[in-house]
Specification:
The protein is α+β, with helices and mostly antiparallel strands. It is 42% helix and 16% strand. The chain has 20 helices and 18 strands. Strand 14 and strand 15 form a beta hairpin. Helix 5 packs across helix 6 and helix 6 crosses helix 9. It starts with a helix and ends in a 7-residue tail after the last strand.
Length: 693
């Protein structure tokens, strides 16, 4: 249950937040319109408020999506899923693998925050509120339905004659059924398709024919206006957004304008406002119970103000040309602008070559591969006997709040620079520029690319002392290794940042073994950890251009992002010590090494010598990339803790929900702040089947 609620939070939290402030802004606009139209007919203001209510059911994002769907695509390659997200989301479960159990003598992990329970608790409270509101309305509806079924039809008498006469005068298309109720509830209209007018028994003895006619005219107005239908729609809004005070406030405005609209119609019809006012007062005196939420009655809203308005009998202004133009302008702006935004976003060209895009298949790790966030390193290590997937490192205190950088608190100047958002990009981001400038002509001395026909373990990409190798792997793996983002500070492109990845680069029928050797002249530099990453990218890029005829370019555009900044207390990790050994650790994607251990339902992943760019990739939420604004440029030792998923020793019912990117950032003393930034896309213009040797 907790996992289901957490998943629901993941899908709803960000869109719901945007939708709420947009709808609240729309309510404010509706309020200004209603104020401007205060001298006009109440039915106009009623529909202004009704539109504000319905806006809660129609997010602007839906209109933007609709605009994107109807936009004519320009010459561009459709965005497709990249075969592989270099570092998958940390919340993905680990594959079922045999884990090394840590001995009881090992130090216990530091207490983990239970903040992850807050999102499912919020969702549970929200769903509970919806249930309470709906059950309350259903209870009222069933009560009135039973009352109507037990009421006797009223087909004769002064009430029936007055009703038929008013129906003829008002040209009511569908006759309204009149029933006599034993309940002391005031007269009201119940139902939408087949409305029923409930008339309390004995009330006619206190009214004369003029009063009866005025009351019936009021109820007929409710039926003709379909007020029960609009009340039902607003009830749905109120049930879903029961926590929003503006929704309840709109309900009051709707009831007020609804009753005033009926008052204006009855006063105009009967031409005796004092008789109509007396009718309302007599009903209040006779009936001890007001109508329920599913019934349109006569005594709703602010009764005192209604009576004053009726007795003044001031004719409301009809909606003139100015008011009509104002409403049309607001309506068109509200509807057309989101549609245009969707069309503009879709129509932005990503000038690619006119390649016919085959069906893309997403890289799915085989049963030998762990599909967790460390897929890049796990693929290369899962079946490597020299690098077990879960190691049991010697006594090491895993901690969510590890020592700060350099094992001590940051100085005032360091803290200020670390917490201040900056445009500075970490070396991982600048390395692509260095690659192009310094190593652009580097090539492997010997390269072998052969179709894999024997299967076996998959190795995504493994650096060796004299080269690079891949086993049983898609060629897309080489592409995402060769090209890294030049903006944003992330170590890898996310799935939606690569366009044009063809099926022959990702399909299960296109797996290859790749062996590349470095020449003697470059071997010394290759074995230098500071130079090797840039050399690897340059050599892979040249190899892909030579053997696959690969041509790519990058495109950037302004999009919603998250800025990864240092939180108030400073980073909760320390700077790496060069040359420090880490027994049991194995290479991690993008540099550094990692190890994992599990105990008491938690999995601790230890990273040594990784860059802030790799951390950015691990913390990027799906669909909205994170960008490095920490100002940190070194190599760091980091520990992340996540709940042990089901299937690895924990029953599903007892499993703790995975942590969100924000919670993982909090572990590291970092923070994801909503922002705007230049998001880079890698676009594949041309690629061919590789020549084998």
């Amino acid at each position: 249950m907790l996992r289901a609620l957490s998943v629901l939070w993941t899908f709803l939290a960000a869109p719901m937040g945007d939708h709420l402030w947009q709808s609240s802004l729309f309510v404010a606009l509706a309020g200004l319109l209603a104020l401007a139209l205060r001298k006009n007919q109440a039915r106009v203001r009623y529909w202004v408020w009704m539109t504000a209510s319905l806006k809660f059911l129609i997010p602007f994002s839906l209109l933007i999506t609709l605009g994107s769907a109807i936009a004519k695509p320009r010459m561009s390659t459709p965005a497709q899923t990249v075969v592989y997200s270099a570092v998958e989301d940390f919340s993905q479960p680990f594959a079922e693998q045999e884990m090394t159990v840590i001995s009881q003598a090992a130090p216990s992990p530091a207490p983990v925050s239970h903040f992850h329970l807050l999102p499912p608790a919020v969702i549970a409270i929200w769903l509970g509120g919806i249930t309470v509101v709906l059950l309350g309305w259903i209870k009222s509806w069933i009560r009135v339905l039973l009352l109507v079924r037990t009421a006797a039809p009223l087909e004769e008498g002064s009430e029936a004659d007055a009703l038929h006469g008013l129906e003829a005068r008002l040209a009511v298309r569908k006759p309204i059924k009149l029933v006599l109720s034993q309940n002391w509830m005031e007269p009201g209209i119940f139902g939408i398709v087949d409305p029923v007018l409930i008339w309390p028994k004995g009330i006619s003895e206190h009214l004369d024919d003029r009063h009866i006619e005025a009351i019936l005219a009021h109820e007929i107005c409710h039926a003709c206006r379909q007020d029960n239908l609009t009340a039902l729609l607003h009830m749905l809004v109120r049930a879903i957004f029961w926590f929003h005070p503006l929704v309840w406030w709109i309900g009051g405005r709707l009831e007020e304008e609804r009753e005033r609209a009926c008052d204006e119609a009855v006063t105009k019809l009967c031409k005796q406002p004092h008789v109509y006012a007396e009718s309302i007062l007599k009903v209040c005196k006779f009936c001890s119970e007001s109508p329920l939420a599913c019934v349109s009655g006569i005594t709703g809203a602010d009764l005192k103000n209604r009576l004053l308005h009726i007795m003044r009998n001031q004719a409301a202004h009809k909606l003139g040309l100015g008011g009509t133009c104002l409403l049309a302008l607001v309506g068109l702006t509200t509807l057309v602008v989101p549609l245009m935004v969707g069309q503009v976003e879709t129509s932005k060209p990503l000038t690619t070559s006119a390649l016919k895009q085959p069906k893309v298949s997403t890289l799915k790790p085989s049963s030998t591969i762990s599909p967790d966030l460390f897929a890049l390193s796990q693929i290369s290590q899962a079946s490597d006997p020299q690098s077990p997937p879960i190691s049991n490192p010697p006594a090491r205190q895993p901690s969510v709040t590890a020592p700060p950088i350099n094992g001590a608190a940051l100085s005032a100047s360091q803290a200020a620079s670390a917490q201040q958002p900056t445009a500075q990009i970490s070396p991982a981001s600048n390395s692509e520029t260095d690659t192009a400038a310094k190593y652009k002509d580097l090539r492997f001395d010997v390269v072998s690319i052969r179709r894999n026909k024997s299967g076996g373990p998959q190795i995504f990409g493994k650096v060796t002392p004299d080269g690079f190798e891949m086993r049983n792997m898609f060629l897309a793996a080489a592409i995402v290794t060769a090209y890294v983002p030049t903006t944003g500070g992330a170590a890898h492109y996310s799935d939606d940042q690569v366009v044009g990845m063809e099926s022959r680069l990702t399909g299960d029928d296109y797996r290859y073994d790749l062996d590349a050797k470095v020449g003697e002249a470059d071997l010394q530099d290759w074995q230098n950890p500071a130079k090797q990453p840039a050399m690897l990218r340059a050599m892979l890029q040249n190899m892909l251009a030579d053997r696959l005829k690969l041509k790519v370019h990058r495109s950037t555009k302004e999009e919603r992002t998250y800025a990864l900044v240092v939180a108030r207390g400073g980073p909760h990790f320390k700077e790496s010590v060069p040359g420090e050994s880490h027994p049991g650790a194995f290479p991690f994607a993008g540099g550094g090494v990692m190890s994992r251990e599990a105990k008491d339902g938690w999995i601790m992943s230890h990273f040594f010598g990784i860059s802030i760019g790799q951390i950015v990739s691990m913390l990027s939420p799906e669909g909205r990339p994170a960008q490095d604004k920490t100002g940190l440029t070194g190599k760091y030792d980091v520990t992340l803790v996540q709940p042990e998923p089901p299937g690895a020793g924990t029953p599903q019912a007892q499993a703790t929900p995975p942590l969100s990117p924000g919670e993982r950032a909090d572990q590291l003393g970092l923070k994801l702040v909503p922002s705007q930034g230049q998001v880079e896309t890698l676009i594949i213009d041309h690629v061919e089947q590789p020549s084998e040797n």
